[in-house]
Amino acid sequence: MIRKNGASRREIDWASVHRRIAVAGENRDASREAKDAILVERARALARPIETATARTPDLSLATFDLAGERYGIEARLIVEIGRLSDFSPLPGAPSHLIGIANLRGDILPIFDLRALLALNRRALDDMSRLVVLGRHGPEFGILADATRELTALSSAELLPPPPSVSEEARHLIRGVTKDALVVLDGAVLLEDRRLFCDQEDEART
User: Is the pTM of this model over 0.70?
Assistant: First the structure.
């Protein structure tokens, strides 16, 4: 047939058209999949620093102190107060780690020397000794310190196991050690340790 304008009319090859549309659709789908894969990989890459930062987010607030030439820390939430060791009454016949009892505003407060439990060198008490009072809802007992330091915050993920040189007796009292040699004591374990309980019989001996 001849069109009025003189151009010849061709039959449309619909099968070829459909094939081209199908190929274009496949290419478009492949392109979308590739883009999606790139976006997923970018999202993962962005998430890695966030995950790392979260793992290192400080979750431990510690009060630090010196004991026998080493640095120690205990969770600040378990510390009632820190002060100077002033007056206390020794308990004859008491275990070596129980140095005596003190009157803390009307409360009888046992005072312990952790050096005996941690196998550290002990020295005589002097007026420079500090007292760290522990307790959950009030003062339960005090522990000696040579000097008190600053509050510090760190992530529990930073803690390393105690070195092999630490005795088994002391190991369960230690939560971990940091790279800069801060020994983090487990305050909750200390508060439950039966060796740090003072019986009424001990108090009566005074």
Answer: no
CA dihedral 131→137→140→143, nearest 10 degrees, is: -30
Record the tokens describing residue 128, joined without a space: 């420079």
| Angle, CA 58 vertex, CA 185 and CA 63 arms, to 5° | 40
Nearest to 78 by CA among 185, 196, 198: 185
**Rounded distance, CA 169 to CA 167, Å?**
5
Q: Tell me, what amino acid is at 37?
A: A
DSSP 65-84: EEETTEEEEEEGGGEEEEEE
Q: Which residue in the block uniquely carries the two structure tokens 């003072």? A: 198
Q: Any idea what the Cα angle at residue 70 is, between residues 120 and 159, rounded to 5°? A: 105
Rounded Cα distance between 83 and 75, Å, is 17
Q: Which two tokens stand for residue 27?
A: 């290419």
Give Cα 113 to chain centroid, integer Å.
25
- For residue 112, what is the enclosing H or E element? strand 107-112
- Coil, helix or strand at residue 2: strand
Cα 176 to its chain centre, rounded Å, is 9
Residues of the chain with pLDDT under 50: 1-7, 50-54, 200-206
CATH 2.40.50.180 assigned to 60-204: yes
Closest CA to 150 of 61, 77, 32, 89: 61
pLDDT in tens, 35-82: 666 655 655 565 555 444 445 788 899 999 999 889 999 999 999 999
